[in-house]
Design brief:
With 165 residues, this protein is an alpha+beta fold. It folds into 2 domains: 127 residues, Alpha-Beta Plaits (2-Layer Sandwich), CATH 3.30.70; 36 residues. It is 58% helix and 16% strand. The protein is built from 6 helices and 5 strands. It has a 5-stranded antiparallel sheet with strand order 2-3-1-4-5. Helix 1 crosses helix 3 and helix 4 packs across helix 5. It is elongated. The termini are far apart.
Length: 165
């Protein structure tokens, strides 16, 4: 095999390992049946959420997972696949599931979330989780609730005392 081709393949494998290690989630999708316009629409939707869709050869992904000592995706790597890399765990799966509702040709096959292999149902469950901003707001509302209740109680006591006088 030509040395230039071999070097290019090694670079691709290294790029895949880097992408997987720097991503919160990697989702494997089958895109057969999508038009070019629909693929562009999907890429734009993913880019809005901080995710990206890349098409690699399955053998390259297998080799990258082996070299990076990452869990194998096994049967998910059959047929033409697209790989969605997202920094936040929920962003990519959430955008994919939303897009797949409108476009039946896009099939979520499974993925890798924080080092664990998930099937299609697992990825759909992850997509239902709140994102980072949602979790922060839930946490802050939990912290704020006791103070708010205390302030309302103090105000009610003060109002009652003002009415009695």
């Amino acid at each position: 095999m030509n040395q230039q081709i071999l070097a290019a393949k090694k670079e691709t494998v290294a790029a895949i390992v880097d992408s997987v290690k720097n991503s919160g989630s990697v989702t494997v999708v089958s895109y057969q049946g999508l038009t070019v316009a629909e693929m562009q629409e999907l890429r734009k939707a993913l880019a809005k959420d901080g995710a990206s869709l890349v098409v690699y050869k399955n053998t390259m992904v297998r080799r990258a997972l082996e070299e990076g000592q990452l869990p194998s995706l096994g049967d998910l790597l059959n047929g033409p696949n697209g790989f969605v890399f997202s920094k936040e765990v929920v962003q990519g799966p959430k955008a994919l599931v939303k897009f797949a509702r409108a476009h039946e040709a896009l099939v979520v096959k499974g993925g890798l979330v924080e080092g664990k292999v998930l099937d299609a149902d697992g990825v759909k469950e992850v997509s239902k989780l709140p994102d980072k901003n949602g979790l922060i707001s839930m946490f802050l509302s939990c912290l704020n609730a006791p103070i708010t209740k205390f302030a309302a109680t103090v105000k009610a006591v003060a109002d009652k005392g003002a009415q009695a006088a």
